[in-house]
Specification:
The complex is a heterodimer of chains A (587) and B (74). By secondary structure, chain A is an alpha+beta fold. Chain A is built from 23 helices and six strands. Classes of the chains: A alpha+beta (587), B mainly alpha (74).
Chain lengths: 587, 74
Amino acid sequence: MLYESSLLAIAIFASFVVGVIGLSFFLGRKGQSAQAYYAAHGEVHWFVNGIAFAGDYLSAASFLGICGMIAFHGYDGFLYSIGFLAGWIVALFVIAEPIKALGRFTFADALDARFNSRGIKLAVAISTLVVSVFYLIPQMVGAGDLIVPLLGLPHWAGVVLVGVAVTLIVVTAGMVSTTWVQFIKGSLLVFFCGVLAALILDRGLAVNAGRPGTERLVPQVRTVRPDGAVLVDGMPQSREHDLRPVGTILRLPDRYAGKTSTGPLRPLEYLSVLEDSSIVTWVPSKRVDEAGVHTTYTPVERQGVDLLKPGGYFTGLTTGKLADRLDFASLMLALFCGTASLPHILIRYYTVKDAAAARKSTVVGIAAIGAFYVLTLYLGLGAMTSGALDPTSSNMAAPLLAKSFSTTLFAVISAIAFTTVLGTVSGLIMAGSGAVAHDLVENVCGVRMTDHEKVRCGKLAAVGLGVVAMALGILFRSFNVSFLVGWAFNIAASANLPALVMLLFWPRTTKQGIIAAVTVGMAASLGWILLSADTFEKVYGWDREASLVPFSQPGLVTIPLGFFVLVAVSLLSPRSPPPVNRARGSR
Amino acid sequence: MASPEESPGRRLGLVFFWIYVALYAGFMGLVLFRPDLLSLRPFGGVNLAIASGMGLIAAAFGLALLSLVVRPGR
């Protein structure tokens, strides 16, 4: 769909972005030591850190991806919410306190605390970079998606804009500014999603979203010709002749006979009424010939009861095929295990003063993130029935839902979503720059640097990562961001969790075991993803049946593989010397 | 490095962890093997899929809060 930008939207958006970057410059003057740059002096208050956890974690995947998935496929998007939140239980009860006690600046510090091994630092630094880059892709794709309707700019411009803004944030003040950007973003995101959910409940449900023009239930065809020109139903796309917005209720339950709208609904009543309604969803099908790529969007009447149960997106749950079920189980395992293995989440534990603060900040994070995920269900379902969806982009569901209320709300929600991307990307780039400067350059290559040089090296690494992130964001633009994030969770869980958990719970763990587990876990999960049916179809454009692995999500195989390799190699290698507790002593 | 098992607070945390693992695994078991059951509406309004999903989110917060309140050996 083509979008018209509004001056008000641009003004609100610009004020958000300028405000965030301005705050960064202000905080950047406060300290330039390595301890300040990488760990915010370890003096962040636990409550601020807890909300910053939410800011870090509630990425474009959570906000744009889950809302879009619920809006287009129903309940299955909520399964992502459940899996994402469950991962925090691992972080709170297994990881939080020990990681704070073991580490200093980076995840590698924690894994290497007992051994002082260059091999561990190298393996973990590479794993941190791989996970961060995989997690960066969906954030940048989401940024580009947001810019298109908001500023009327092409997708790549949004990607470049967020890349430049984030690099500025990270380079100016490191973890201090990143923490505050995430705190502000986390607070705004949860608050305004609450406002949006309240508006959805107040509006209730209405046949055809109460909007004229949405009742035309005839297929729409979008053609992209070889020369790049876009046709809609055979005519050149323009603002006057464009795809119609979709997503409506066809029939309300019998108890609303004779009415076209329910009026305001209570939270559980909203779900119950929706379950008894008939809803129109639009199913895309693609055809390629010499005239171009034709995508036909066909309206399909579905019962609410079918949309509010599993199987809309994970269709394998209802086909009964074992491989499809294993694929789903693998994803859910990766979401559960992945959160506590994400380097940009783990380094946030170094910004508070002690283990108790680490624990309390995790509880605050769980409260904020849990509240947000409950709201995503309402946002997704509200978008599904808003008559405002763009059939070509699931990632735009939440901002377009806001637009169905008012342009101002659309601008605010888009600006917050953009700040969401800024916050998460800045956290990822911080984690990646720490891995390059602190782990690779300083500890693996043995380059001795002054405090000032360490910071400068980190900033150079941040700029490099920013450029890589921009390129990948442009390359992967057509993907649902939640789907892409699933890859990052799989790699993080396979490479990092086995080593972290066994280091904490199995005294026989050796440095050789850790190096092998991280390396094998990372290589196996990455290799599996590259050979999977999803990648064959969506990245290479090949036949998915030619895939070399039985299902797409690797976690179910590669996470246990990481544990197995660690145990086997540890048993085969000599016992490690007693712990030196180097990190704790160095603080 | 002290073993995580040595602290009573950590031990209780691990008990909470395994409680949640059981809840999560039970829910995923239903989704995988008996998705039809999740369409039932035992509580009248919303179906079991929504109720159990919300319940898992609430359980995560409840256990997290409990871990702050109940800290043996403080």
